């Protein structure tokens, strides 16, 4: 399923990642193919991709070693908020970094939270999601 599940925000709408910028200045350009400058920005854009159903961005920003052969998003799941708890590395001059976050969602009307400590690396100069730390 590669179609978007929810309407993509307009450029002036608040970005789903909660970063405080309009979608067109925050995750919008990254979902359109721009490189993320930091691991945290990539994390935020991946959250937004889950929220709007952009499977193409998720696949493009997933390290080949861990990328699933097929990714289908569940239409019963709605992402409702993102909290960045902590980051290490992942800056302009780094080659790896981590982002610990809580992503809030509802699934078939039940509220829940995904808590993850994600690893990111630079692959050919671009930040990509590697995996989740245990």
From TrEMBL:
Residues 38-132 form the YchJ-like middle NTF2-like domain. SUPFAM superfamilies: NTF2-like. Gene3D superfamilies: 3.10.450.50. Belongs to the UPF0225 family. This is UPF0225 protein F8M49_07260. It comes from Rhodococcus zopfii.
């Amino acid at each position: 399923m590669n179609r978007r599940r929810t309407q993509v925000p307009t450029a002036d709408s608040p970005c789903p990642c909660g970063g405080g910028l309009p979608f067109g200045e925050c995750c919008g350009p990254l979902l359109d193919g721009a490189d993320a400058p930091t691991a945290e920005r990539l994390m935020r854009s991946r959250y937004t991709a889950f929220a709007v159903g952009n499977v193409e961005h998720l696949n493009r920003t997933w390290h080949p070693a861990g990328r699933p052969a097929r990714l289908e998003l569940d239409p019963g799941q709605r992402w409702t908020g993102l909290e960045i708890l902590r980051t290490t590395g992942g800056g302009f001059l780094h080659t790896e970094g981590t982002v610990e976050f809580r992503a809030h969602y509802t699934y078939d009307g039940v509220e829940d939270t995904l808590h993850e400590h994600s690893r990111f690396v630079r692959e050919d100069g671009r930040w990509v999601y590697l995996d989740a730390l245990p």
